[in-house]
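Task card 7
Instruction: Convert sequence to structure tokens.
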Amino acid sequence: MGSLLSACGINVKKKKVEEERRLRANDREFNLSFKYANNAIKTSKYNVFTFLPLNLFEQFQRLANAYFVFLLILQLIPQISSLSWFTTVVPLLLVLSITLAKDLSDDITRHKNDKQVNNRKVEVLIDGELKTERWMNVQVGDIVKLENNEFVTADLLLLSSSEPLNLIYIETAELDGETNLKVKQALTLTGELCNDIQRLAAFKGEVRCEPPNNRLDKFTGTLVVGGETFALDNERILLRGCTLRNTEWCFGLVLFGGPDTKLMQNSGKSIFKRTSIDHLMNVLVLFIFGFLAFMCTILSIGNAIWEYQEGNSFIVFLPRADGANASLSAFLTFWSYVIILNTVVPISLYVSVEILRLGNSYFIDWDRKMYHVKSDTPAQARTTTLNEELGQIKYIFSDKTGTLTQNIMTFNRCSINGKSYGEVVDFAGQRVEVTEKTEKVDFSWNLLADPKFFFHDHKLVEAVKLGSPEVHAFFRLLALCHTVMPEEKTQGDLFYQAQSPDEGALVTAARNFGFVFRARTPETISVVEMGIETTYELLAVLDFNNVRKRMSVIVRNPEGKLMLYCKGADTIIYERLHPSCSKVMEVTTEHLNEYAGEGLRTLALAYKDLDEDKFAEWRRRHHEASIALEDREEKLDAIYEEIEKDLILIGASAVEDKLQDGVPQTIEQLAKADIKIWVLTGDKQETAENIGYSCNMLREEMTEIFIVAANTAEEVREELVNARKKMSPESGDEPPMEKSRFLGKKSQVVEDEKVDGEYGLVINGHSLAFALQKDMQVELLRTACMCQTVICCRVTPLQKAQVVELVKKHKKAVTLAIGDGANDVSMIKTAHIGVGISGQEGMQAVLSSDFSFAQFRYLQRLLLVHGRWSYLRMCTFLRYFFYKNFTFTFVHFWYAFFCGFSAQTVYDEWYITLYNLVYTALPVLGISLFDQDVNDRWSFQYPQLYAPGQMNQYFSKMAFAKILLHSCYSSLILFFVPWAAMWDTVRDDGKDIADYQSFALLAQTCLLIAVSVQLGLDTYYWTAVNHFFLWGSLSVYFAVTFTMYSNGMYLIFTSSFPFIGTARNSLNQPNVWLTIFLTTILCVLPVVAKRFLFIQFKPTINDKVRHKVKQAKAEPPPPPQRFPRRRISTRRSGYAFSHARGYGDLVTSGRFLRIPVKSRPALFSKNESPVADSTPQTYISIFEETQNP
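Output:
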């Protein structure tokens, strides 16, 4: 194509692949020379010029639409056309117009959303001044100013900030789904620019960095200033989609804009989604074309034979045109029959399908049971072309944070000195379920209490008030042992900035029970203990890491006593306890098992009194280890081990990561429907596992749960193979494959393998990156598909999409992805169906989705009710539509053998025009909009009803073949019975009625009544609308027939209405009505007999449930509010430790302290900053649970 355009004198340039990005600050002319993308984004598909051609191109991908254009061309040729051209043009224009209008509306919405984002305002440094600019006008190399709570405009290099040591806090919920804050730090050199506009305008740094890519966790580049080169890593970069938090202002240099940003690089391409039925229809239409050509060929051969043998007899009074002979006649007859028999692919089918899908979309929009009152959010079918696909889902890919959970941590239970608190019991000692009506603990005695904190066990607050030393020690530990930062904007108005929501929940619990963490400095921690201000000297923070899975602080209390407080995973703490704690440990272990059984996240808490002399010696060696140049981490860990021994167990805490309402029940229902759920989350492994247990996706009774967390490709392969061999020892090395054309695409499908028992698979993002490599992805798929539950942790947005694509490619299954954040957009677009939850992480997921609602629990109604009904209705509609049209067409075929293959129609031309548009249009729409085999209550009661849709049982190639045979049988009855009945027949008065017009009227009346009775047999759920449509259509037929065949119409339009008097001449004869009755009985008799026998001897799941519905005297009760199952677990549900080092050094260095800039003293010189010198860190949640496979 390029060479062709070049030959025509048009210069065609291929866009070069960017290998390195190079830019200069404050130099637009230099940066524009590279033609980098600006900051405007575009998610719409069309513009004013491309809408019509592109949309029509997409529509003509439907073979039937292209076929009708071809038919129209044929009908314009008078020699072969026996039908008027408008019979094709009007329906075709109607179909194209409806689809055009719908797609135009959808794209206008996308344009509005793009416009809203592109027109956001930001301050940009231009010509030495800060000017307010729209986002879309920001260019690479510009310096922009962001203020607190503002979205990051583009991918920026952080230059300076209002915080000490140029630190800033950002929320990355739109990128990775995590709402806890992350910390970024600018280079010391650029940090000195502060907010001095003149110095910033004079800054001429040059950046060389990686080209645009989708890696959220990595960045490599250099900054050259004044001939000096500085390394840039991910800790200096702010990504578009983040939000600035708790930072007054910051300045950043734009590196990537708009489509080049990592957020947009991860968003994936917009895919034109079509359902499996659409793809099957294309295949069937191809077959129908072939079948039509086959029928026309037979009839044209018949015409040639007839012309050769009989045609000469008619030449006397029907002379042939010059050059005409049998061959030419056969050729023209072929095309004439293509026009006449075109009803095998009726254009009205596509009109009806669009109306059906639109109607079922409105049912989703109008469903009050999917309306969320608190957020005033209704369910929304954002795409109207995928409804029936909701009834065929096999795999669900779900985000965790904000989708399954509310991302709200609550302090629920605790065990202190062997006594458990948090459970509410009645006077009889029976456990009571906690509801909104349950009496809450009154914290009014504590002026510094958080009003949002709720607790229901009054015994704990009484123990605090009575001065129980163990209870006080418990909450004192929670108030001291953490890395939370306090902020007190007004007197008594405390706000905690925690690096993870679970740490914040523990410190808030201590605050409400009288131990209020008030302030910290690098050397002290201030706590208000039961109203008394107390200051502890902070001597050391023994930081956590992925191996330690615990953290400790060493403090000196006001009495001068040295104390070590430690919290961490219980298995780690237990190993370091003093032997005297054995009894308390046994009781605490029982409580931990109970808490874990309820899916709570647990920590063990312990303390130790320290000796002054030993501590002084330890502190000296600790200092030596902390300044070591080699093996610093290992030396520090060894020093920590020395002092964290012989601890005294205080108790354990249990925090709940609140699930959304109804999540466990929804997952249980979907599992009963044989839908597999995979959780793809950017969260930590242990956190995701805890939610898996809470949701009953992972269960103690599972045979085994495999953890894949290897660091090399070979180790990952080995772990996957070992897991597969354990599940299926006879499983071969080569996967069982079959070639398939599922959804219209050629692919190699990996067949399911039999497994004994239930298994779960947990794999982290690092291992997943290896497993998704081309030579290993099938192994991953085989192993994962053997498991009942799959959880992928620490995955990037692109990896989420790759996992979905892997299942789409190699499994004969329909996939659904559900999420609530921008990090889920890529997988939502990739899956066959994308569902967005309008949650707390913005609206990007909703804007990219096909369906949206407010709560995960509505997914079961969307699939088990609306999805199943939509699929059932669509299949019923297609089966019936093909049946009535094939039957209609085949009668033409049989008639050809009796009319000399002359392409004469068996029916009146007006009947042919109105058959699909009027007589049979509304009844079939009635069944396809309102039919239901059982109501929604029974659909929930028996989720197994969903299974036939997954296996394509209702409409497939086999079902189509049966329809073809059924239509062939019916057409034989509908032609030959009336033909035999009309042979040499006379009226009661002896007059002849065995003419063509009388036969045509009888044949078309028999056809309409027979297909109407068949429709009645196919209807399970009769409504007033169904009755009105069915009886109304029959009434309209007889009214129109008597009107068109009247004398008046003949006199006004003689050539258009030649059937004068036929209706009144024939339809008043008893033998005519007897013939109609006989043909109808013969048409439906095999259907009734087959259904009776199948229900008796081979009933389907639908037949069984409908039988139970008939036997039941009342509706099934609504599902009861389930009390959470208590289970004893050998597994601990604990906090998730970070995969990187913690914030202990930053806490003790004072870098997080929010001191006013003017009076802020220098804690130490900036070039000594451990943050500035350290390798890149990922700032994530504080704790990580121990997992023993």
